[in-house]
Automatic annotation (TrEMBL):
Residues in HTH crp-type domain copies: 139-200
Protein name: Crp/Fnr family transcriptional regulator
Any one cellular-component term (Gene Ontology): cytosol
PROSITE patterns: HTH_CRP_2
Keyword Transcription attributed: yes
Organism (species): Ramlibacter lithotrophicus
GO molecular function: DNA binding; DNA-binding transcription factor activity
Amino acid sequence: MPELLALYPALAALTPAALGAPLEVAAGTVLFTQQQPCLGFPLVLEGEVRVSKRSPEGRTLELYRVGPGDLCLVSSACLFHGTPLMAEAVATRPGRLLLIPPGTFHEWLDHRSFRDMVLGAFAERMADLAALVDAIAFQRLDERLAAALLGHGPTLAVTHQALAQELGTVREIVTRVLRRFEREGWVALSREQIRILDSAALRRHASVTQVTDTGRVPPVQ
C-alpha cells in the first residue's frame, strides 16, 4: 500500500499488505473510549483524531491530536501493558485509518524500524504532554484562554463549550473570562463566534513566550 508506506516508512520492512482495507470514519465518530480494551493500533491515513481525557464529572481535556503519519500514544501504551485505554478518541473530520490488530502490533515490535518509530512517538508525545501539564499547573486560565484565541485570524468560529474542552475547564468559566475580555475591549462576542479586536492586548495578557500562530482552537461542535 504505497500511501501507507509514504506516511509510515518504517513499515517498509514489514507486511502491511495483509492488513486489509482502510476504515472510513465520519467526523464525530468515537474510535475508542476510556476503560475499554484496546482493539488495535490505529494508523491515520487521512483526517484527524482528537484524543482526550474525561473526568468522572464529564469534563474533558484534550491531550493531543493524531494526523496522517502520527502515532497514538494511548493506544500503544495500552497494548504494551495490556491495560484498558486511559483516554477517548474522536474523529474531528472525515478520514481513513488502518487498525493494526494487537497480535500484529506485538509481532512488529520485534522489528527495530517499527520499535524505533513507536518509541520515537512516545518521546514526542511526552514532550507535548509535559508542556500541557506545565500550562495547566502553572499558567492561569485567563492567560491560557488569551493564548488560545491568538493566531487564527480576526474571527474565530468556536463555541464556549469547545474552548472549555480544549482548556480542560467548564463552559461557565470560559464564558465569564470571555465577557471580561469583551468589557476590556479585546474581543467581541456573538453566537458561536469570537471577533478579535485587540490582539496585542491578548498577547500581553497571555504573558508566555510560547504563544505562536500555530495554536489550535477546536471548530464549532
